[in-house]
Amino acid sequence: MVALRSLFAIVILLILAACTTIADPNTTSPTIVIPIPTTTNPTTTTALTVPPPEACDPPTFLPTILPDRVVDDQPDVSAVPLDDFTLQPGTIVTGWTDSVGNPVVAFVRGGLPPRYWIGTTEKIELRGTEAALGDLGDGVWGVAWFEGLDRCDEYYLVFYPPTGPDEARAVAESLTGSG
């Protein structure tokens, strides 16, 4: 029985040796060529169009403190600059300008800032929730927060230069009211 088992082991080793090739450094490895079909089959594509989100209602609250350079304390839709902060589908935006029409503050409902913060944000208390105050680059500062799970519960204020964190905090903390 031991002889039969030894003979069987030798046969297996011979078969394995016969199937294995020794690599020759002068030969190249085999290449697999996948043929490209010469006929074309018509393909059907389906394009899905997603409608833009519906605009949110205007907020029912506004800041009670505005930067000194703001001309009129009443928001003016025509004062809103057309930039990456204000051109987000589905948002509602209002703003305030200085005496020559330069944007000072934009108030956006229905989204969060489209840019990453530069550096670490400061956490502030705003309308009973935590908000982030930070530098958005190019002298622009922002305050962002959300009050619920709906997209229209997302808000942010954009402060255009010249500005800074103290001005942004004062205006943001003056927001009162509901909704």
Largest sheet: 6 strands, antiparallel
Count of distinct strands: 6
In N-to-C order, the SSE pattern is HEEEEEEH
Portion of residues within helices: 10-25%
Q: Structural class, from secondary structure content? A: alpha+beta
Number of DSSP helical runs = 2
Indicate the radius of gyration in whole angstroms: 33 Å
Span between N and C termini? 90 Å
Q: How much of the polypeptide forms β-strand, as a percent range?
A: 15-25%
- Name the quaternary structure: single chain
Q: How would the global form be characterised?
A: globular
Mean pLDDT: 79
- Sheet with most strands: strand arrangement: 1-2-6-5-4-3
Structure description:
The chain is of the alpha+beta class. The chain has a domain at 77-173. 15% of the residues lie in helices and 25% in strands. The chain is built from two helices and six strands; from the N terminus they run H-E-E-E-E-E-E-H. It has helices at residues 2-19, 165-173; strands at 92-97, 103-109, 118-126, 129-137, 140-146, 154-159. It has a six-stranded antiparallel β-sheet with strand order 1-2-6-5-4-3, covered by helices on one side. A hairpin with a 5-residue loop joins strand 1 (92-97) and strand 2 (103-109). It is globular and about 55 Å long. The chain starts with a helix and ends in a 6-residue tail after the last helix.
